[in-house]
Amino acid sequence: MEKFLPFESRMVVMPVDNIDTDQVIPARFLKKTDMEGWGDLLFNDWRYESDGTPKPDFILNQDSSKGLKILLAGDNFGCGSSREHAPWALTQYGFRAILSTSFADIFKSNALKNSLLPIVVSPEIHKKLFSMPESSVQVDLASQTITLADGTKAEFHVDGFSKQCLLEGVDELGFILKNNDAIAAYEAKRFSTLNTLEG
Q: Does some domain include residue 68?
């Protein structure tokens, strides 16, 4: 994982509530076993005709959306069944952050483990963002703030462990391996066996 650095980007605006994980990445693709190519499948059924032709009116198929790192979505993003493939598809497309008023818990957890920042904003900020769809937003994880084009700042919450992993660019296993020396020292000092029958 790459370190999560402050960035600024315009937004891909998708004013749809309750976007579920089957819309993000349809279940029929989950039999795919490699880690590459998920970005091409993102929002597949909204993005392509049945013959694979891109739908020109879908937002991701428009030139103005190319290279953007922020998705502005409606309420309750990522509901539905659990699948890590959803954040894989979003990050491989190029998104680093999603702005919404709420996220499904499992999607939020999967996103944070895969270098995708789900940012919960207030209804007021959400409405304001939709009123300025062509503007840029600054995202700063270290200060846990977003800054709108008009200078408005809004704080967001992220748990300390996820924040540390994102800032350092490590996943959970990487975090454990960073502490390998301390773990080894602890293991060297502890008893190799423990009698649980004695008080």
A: yes
Backbone angles phi, psi at 44, to 5 degrees: -50, -50
Q: Which domain holds residue 30?
A: 7-172
Residue 198 lies in a domain: no
**Position 70 pLDDT exceeds 80:** yes
Task: State the total domains in the chain.
Answer: 1
Distance between CA 73 and CA 61 in Å, rounded?
Answer: 17
Q: Taking a C-beta distance cutoff of 8 angstroms, is the pair 62, 87 a contact?
A: no
Q: What is the pLDDT of residues 169-181, one digit of tens each?
A: 998 776 677 777 7
State pTM to two decimals.
Answer: 0.87
Per the domain annotation, does 182 fall within a domain?
no
Reported as a single tens digit per residue, the pLDDT across 155-199 is 999 999 999 999 999 987 766 777 777 777 777 777 666 676 765
Tell me the per-residue pLDDT of 24-57, one tens digit each, with 9 for 90 and over. Answer: 999 999 988 788 899 999 999 999 999 999 999 9
| CATH code, domain with 51 | 3.20.19.10
Measured between alpha carbons, how far is 151 from 142 in angstroms, rounded to an integer?
18
Cα dist. 118→63, 71, 72, 147, 156 in Å?
24, 10, 10, 15, 10
Number of CB atoms found within 10 A of residue 191's CB: 6
Contact 24, 47 (CB under 8 A): no
